[in-house]
Design a protein that fits this description.
GO cellular component, one term: cytoplasm
Largest sheet: 7 strands, mixed
Number of helices: 17
Number of domains: 2
Distance between the termini: 55 Å
Strand order of the largest sheet: 10-11-12-9-8-13-14
CATH topology of the largest domain: Aldehyde Dehydrogenase, Chain A, domain 1
CATH architecture of the largest domain: 3-Layer(aba) Sandwich
Structural class: alpha/beta
Helix content: 40-55%
CATH class of the largest domain: Alpha Beta
Keywords: NAD, Oxidoreductase
GO molecular function: aldehyde dehydrogenase (NAD+) activity
Organism: Sphingomonas gei
Family: Belongs to the aldehyde dehydrogenase family.
Length: about 475
């Protein structure tokens, strides 16, 4: 891997300055890599998951990869333009000029997760390639079929000195994180992110972390409960809840809790009238995660939660060798339960009630800052209070997850849910170096401003002007 990094960096330095035409060509080839092989990627995704909805893979991995790449291709010329900046008085009047140019950083490392193993490679590549960088990608060991497909296909579209893929387990991941990249992007769990930061710190590599956390849904008293619960179910059961942005717990007014639980149950039953043979519903990624989710449900049951498994066809999941799980709604979830302590990453939804909106806000604020926050309701004053009194990576109002698909919005977390942002122009900026340039006029400014010894009247005048 170090040899590959050295080759990429040498090729990058030889190419400087990276032409706009070369950036566009690489973005076009990245689009072709995904679009030309969409069927094979969908097959690989389903094989890795044990079953994954083909339509879901097309929407969330294939189309969601092509869209940001096309967006970058369309806008990279504008993003790449230098930005004129004002010059402090009186230097501007004397002919001084200042501007910022956006340079590529060099070689960017991408450590991709398993839950969207195509999209969370190609979407970051949009910003990486638009900025003029080279890229090395570490794929997840939990999706080995997708990883092998990337390694097979990438050389048909890119030279190894442009974009290259490596695969392997934790030891390979650890070594990859320790390489002296010019920037490193990690998408994954908060616990692993701590190790990534330690590994990158030895080489002072700048790091962008896209993590997760317990993203809350706040349903206001003015919300349309039927609409809100349907939209929450759509987001929660997409990819079987294995999404960093999935609604992690629901906060609902106490008098509307029963109505909300009924709405969740009704919506899940309508979207997925059966599960085991349903091609639209995705399985849990592996046996370990399946066992973890079942253990957490049992932990909640033992500690007093009411567990509602939404199983409209009364299917026998215990007798099946499938890793599909129905939506489990947990009423009365308490802080002692694991589901209220850890990011769930599966089809389990704790429901908690509140009396006043400030109670819901306090519930959000006493936990780590989440990657996303969702609010439903038509009360503008309440919405403004929720937005003003909470901090999260991003927000979707009157729905869930959708802010991630807006390429002009920066996507990222804050604190334990992430550091830095990408998508669209924000991604271009993240993977670029904003280089400040100042051009001095021909006039001897230092002498004019009294900055050359011996100091005197002009010096004191400059100090007075600056102190104002």
């Amino acid at each position: 891997m170090r040899e590959l990094l050295d080759r990429q960096r040498a090729a990058f330095m030889a190419e400087l300055p990276v032409p706009l035409a070369a950036r566009k060509d690489r973005l076009a080839r990245a689009i072709a890599l995904v679009a030309d092989n969409a069927d094979r990627f969908c097959d690989a995704l389903s094989e890795d998951f044990g079953h994954r909805s083909r339509e879901q893979s097309m929407i969330a991995d294939i189309a969601a990869s092509v869209a940001p790449l096309r967006h970058a291709l369309k806008h990279v010329a504008r993003w790449s333009k230098s930005t004129r900046k004002p010059v402090m008085f009186p230097l501007g009047l004397l002919g001084g000029r200042a501007w910022v140019e956006y340079q590529p950083k060099g070689v960017v490392g991408i450590i991709a997760p398993w839950n969207f193993p195509v999209n969370l490679v190609m979407s970051p590549l949009a910003g990486v390639l638009a900025a003029g960088n080279r890229a090395m990608v570490k794929t997840s060991e939990f999706t080995p079929v997708v990883a092998l497909l990337f390694e097979e296909l990438a050389p048909r579209y890119f030279a190894a000195e442009e974009v290259a893929f490596v695969s392997g387990g934790p030891e390979i991941g650890k070594a990859f994180a320790g390489l002296p990249f010019d920037h490193l992007l990690f998408t994954g769990a908060t616990g692993i992110a701590r190790h990534i930061l330690h590994a990158a710190a030895d080489n002072l590599v700048p790091v962008t972390l896209e993590l997760g956390g317990k993203s809350p849904v706040v349903i206001g008293r003015s919300a349309d409960i039927a609409q809100a619960t349907e939209r929450v179910v759509m987001g929660k059961m997409l990819n079987a809840g294995q999404i960093c942005l999935a609604p992690d717990y629901l906060l609902v007014p106490a008098e509307k809790e029963a109505e909300a639980v009924a709405g969740l149950t009704r919506a899940a039953s309508a979207m997925y009238p059966n599960l085991l043979a349903n091609p639209d519903y995705t399985a849990v990624i592996n046996d370990r995660h399946h066992a973890r989710l079942n253990d957490w449900i049992e932990d909640a049951r033992v500690k007093g939660a009411e567990v509602i498994a939404v199983n409209p066809a009364n299917e026998d999941f215990a007798a099946s060798n499938s890793r599909k799980m129905p939506l489990h709604i947990l009423r009365g979830a308490t802080d002692e339960m694991t589901v209220m302590q850890e990011e769930i990453f599966g089809p389990i939804l704790p429901v908690r009630s509140y009396q006043h909106i400030d109670d819901a806000i306090a519930e959000v604020n006493r936990r780590d800052r989440p990657l996303a926050l969702y609010h439903f309701g038509s009360d503008r004053e309440e919405r403004r209070r929720v937005l003003d009194r909470t901090i999260s990576g991003g927000v979707t109002l009157d729905d869930v997850i959708f802010h991630v698909s807006q390429e002009e919005l920066p996507f990222g977390g804050i604190g334990p849910s992430g550091t830095g942002a990408y998508h669209g122009e924000a991604g271009f900026r993240t993977f670029s170096h904003a280089r400040s340039i100042y051009r001095q006029p021909r006039l001897d400014v230092a002498k004019f401003a009294g900055m050359k010894p011996p100091y005197g009247k002009a010096t004191r005048a400059t100090i007075r002007r600056q102190m104002k």
